[in-house]
Amino acid sequence: MSTSTEQPAAELAATTLLRFATAGSVDDGKSTLVGRLLHDSKSVLADQLEAVEHASRSRGQEAPDLALLTDGLRAEREQGITIDVAYRYFATPRRRFILADTPGHVQYTRNMVTGASTAELAVVLVDARNGVVEQTRRHAAVAALLRVPHVVLAVNKMDLVEYRETVFAAIAEEFTTYASELGVPEITAIPISALAGDNVVEPSANMDWYGGPTVLEHLETVPVSHDLTACHARFPVQYVIRPQTAEHPDYRGYAGQIAAGAFRVGEEITVLPSGRTTTITGIDALGESVDIAWAPQSVTIRLADDIDISRGDLLAPVGDAPATSQDVEATVCHVADTPLTVGQRVLLKHTTRTVKAIVKEIPSRLTLDDLSQHPEPGQLVANDIGRVKVRTAEPLALDAYADSRRTGSFLLIDPADGTTLAAGMAGESFASAKAVAPAAVENDEEGWDF
Amino acid sequence: MTTVAHVHEATDSPFALSHLDSLESEAVHIFREVAGEFERPVILFSGGKDSIVMLHLALKAFAPAPVPFTLLHVDTGHNFPEVIEYRDRVVAEHGLRLHVASVQDYIDAGTLRERPDGTRNPLQTVPLTEAIQQHRFDAVFGGGRRDEEKARAKERVFSLRDEFSQWDPRRQRPELWQLYNGRHAPGEHVRVFPLSNWTELDVWQYIQREKIELPEIYFAHEREVFQRNGMWLTAGEWGGPKESETVVTRLIRYRTVGDMSCTGAVDSDATTLDAVIAEIAASRLTERGATRADDKLSEAAMEDRKREGYF
After folding, report:
1. Most CB atoms closer than 10 Å: which of A80, A403, B95, B136?
2. Coil, strand or helix at B27
3. Residue B139's closest CA among B191, B202, B79, B64?
4. Where in this chain does the record put each Tr-type G domain (chain A) (predicted)?
5. How far apart (Å, rounded) are the C-alpha atoms in residues B216 and B220?
6. Looking at the domain A14-221, which fold is it?
7. Domains A14-221 and A229-317 in one fold
């Protein structure tokens, strides 16, 4: 083992964690960007690089193929494409990063949905020579739909357009207009060359007209937590802790991860779906008793009254509890190979609660390219995004996804074999905002694949 | 123009969690999901640092109640005595229940055959999968981390295995938000990896923060070792050294703990947690690259083992 100390001790200090996802078409240079971020943050270690060099040589390639760092499956290496999301880890003295490296291939859009679902930031890559293309719009739409709080437009291959500001400005403006219309709250456009290293980790000497942050600088400084005072506090009960031991004969705590907002000792809460109210008498934050806890801390909450509460119930502040309903309207991304059809019996998993449900209606299917809508498609197939109406067997305390990614999201599951069918986002989205255009129906029996 | 619709905030809100708190919170959530949804979960416990951290997190997740899971150790028969001693001590201390699946028993019974290279790591798969079937475990916690290896980087937190314990990387369920889907048919089970998003350094920093005790072999000590395939292996009755190999005494420590026949030691004078952490932060080798012979067998060695039911 090397005894050199080239990495600064500051890396060992307490840092925050940023989860982000990358999206880009096949030849936009996503692997190069990821490779450079990993390499320049010293996250590619000698034996990994050696393995990549060895594998590249045995394939007859002259330069090490950095895509081999992330393509971990036999089938991916054989085909030279990324099939599935890979998670990568790297760190700088300021922050730790979890990167969901999602495939750019059109066929795997559901994997971008997977990566984006937990991301605080999405990097959308564009080739400066091609500008905003269909795939860029799809990626922006997925980021908007999943409500990723921060979007970075990385205009790559600036070296191939002579580092011209006008090229970058036109692409940035077009993208920003499109993404803002979709409701993306924050967009940062950065001109880069992943290959040459411009504005990825080091500021570019070739684009002195650009005064913003490099990609890494932006990743290091973007805020990872939001204004919790503006959030509706939500606590799905995961597990009831009752030791019933000599030492703790009467302890009864409700374990869970705070999904949104903050909870305080002394606060009055409502239990859903029963609607009973009580007061928080204690919060145990994994061994430490605290007065306040916030998302996404895992804690155990103790209550004043011994009321019937079990896994699947939701605690919310009195006066700020979500309405309960058995009718769910949502935008879904269909992620399974078998279609989702009207009349289908499914399971719906929302926070810690799984209930039976029936797909009542599929009012529309969305084309991400132009955001046009196809009414009553009858079914959704893999990678489709559409609106659904679902009737559940029991009332759910569902928030709008726009208000809470955690309590507004759900899965539809096939009760027969457990397959995850669809990723659901409750309430309105841009997929429901536009009037359904009746003209766009015909010639569609093969389903829409992107 | 440079940035658009962009508010740049330099400081995080007071509600930001440290990265260790975020990872801890996520892992605890995963433990509680399994406790809430499965009938017969088990924690794979080897006495290595990752499984030690896993157990520590499980203890915190259900405190002040006991951990609602049993433990399972797949004993290769070539384990470090210090680790077995540690394992038994921890099990007794927390009043846990431990199952041991023994590779040696299978070899003695003639069901498994010793490999020519002497490594028993791949032999663990059969005792593991049979123990899962025999005890009808439906959720099996493993300490695997995605940063360890590129096939592991593709692994879900909840990983469905068929009745033969096989992993099919092309048929994984998408994993969305924190909504883990643990549905499975009878005979199938789910492998669960609460440390998926942790790195080696995170594990060590957490051990330091939580003051978790480890087996002594993780810290620098003098040991009789010999070199094979570029690794320092511990000399012992398991089958090393051969005649052509020479035993020397070196100051070493272990970065991972596994089968003696394929887990290499690293030269080190790190006798404290601080020193170990400084050493890892400066290392230019990954944990597995530095210490595991079996992953060097082929480019897809881990993927192939995992497909067969390895953890």
Report:
1. A403
2. helix
3. B191
4. 15-229
5. 8
6. Rossmann fold (3.40.50)
7. no
**pLDDT tens-place string over residues A264-321:** 999 999 999 999 999 999 999 998 999 999 999 999 999 999 899 999 999 999 999 9
Q: How many CB pairs under 8 A join A and B?
A: 263
Q: Are A412 and A425 in contact (CB under 8 A)?
A: no
CATH number belonging to domain A229-317 = 2.40.30.10
Domain limits of chain A?
Answer: 14-221, 229-317, 324-426
What is the reported pLDDT for A81?
55
Contacts of B34 (CB under 8 A, 6+ apart): B41, B69, B139, B141, B182, B192
Q: Provide the residue count of chain B.
A: 311
CB A301 within 8 A of CB A282: yes
Q: B284 and chain A: CB distance < 8 Å anywhere?
A: yes
Cβ atoms of residues A187 and B4 within 8 Å: yes
Q: Is residue B115 within 8 Å of B123, Cβ to Cβ? A: yes
Q: Residues 6 or more apart from A304 whose CB is under 8 A from it?
A: A278, A279, A280, A281
In chain B, what residues touch A117 (CB-CB under 8 Å)?
176-177
Q: Do B286 and A45 touch (CB under 8 A)?
A: yes
Q: Residue A230 — φ and ψ, nearest 5°?
A: -90, -5
Report the CATH superfamily, name and number, of domain A324-426.
Translation factors (2.40.30.10)
Contact (CB, 8 A) for B169 and B202: no
Instruction: Note the pLDDT of residue B292.
Output: 64
**pLDDT tens digits along A242-260:** 998 899 999 999 999 999 9
> CA gyration radius for chain A?
24
Residue of A354, A357, A377, A356 whose CA lies nearest to A367: A377
- The dihedrals phi and psi of A359, each to the nearest 5 degrees, come to -75, 110
Nearest to A421, CA basis, from B20, B9, B179: B179
Question: Distance between CA atoms of B129 and B109, rounded to whole angstroms?
Answer: 17
Q: Is B199 on the interface with A (CB under 8 A)?
A: yes
Domain residue ranges in chain B = 19-201+299-308, 216-282
**A310 at interface of B, judged by CB pairs closer than 8 A:** no
CB atoms within 10 A of CB A68: 24
Distance from CA of B109 to the nearest CA of A (A): 35
Q: What's the confidence (pLDDT) of residue A291?
A: 97
Q: Do A212 and B7 touch (CB under 8 A)?
A: no
Scored b (16 or more CB within 10 A) or e, A374-387 reads bbebebbbbbbbbb
Q: What is the CATH number of domain B19-201+299-308?
A: 3.40.50.620
Task: Return the minimum-mean-pLDDT range out of A411-425, B32-46, B112-126, B297-311.
Answer: B297-311
Phi, psi of B62 (to 5 degrees): -115, 0
For residue range A25-63, list pLDDT tens digits in order. 767 778 788 888 887 777 777 777 777 778 778 778 777
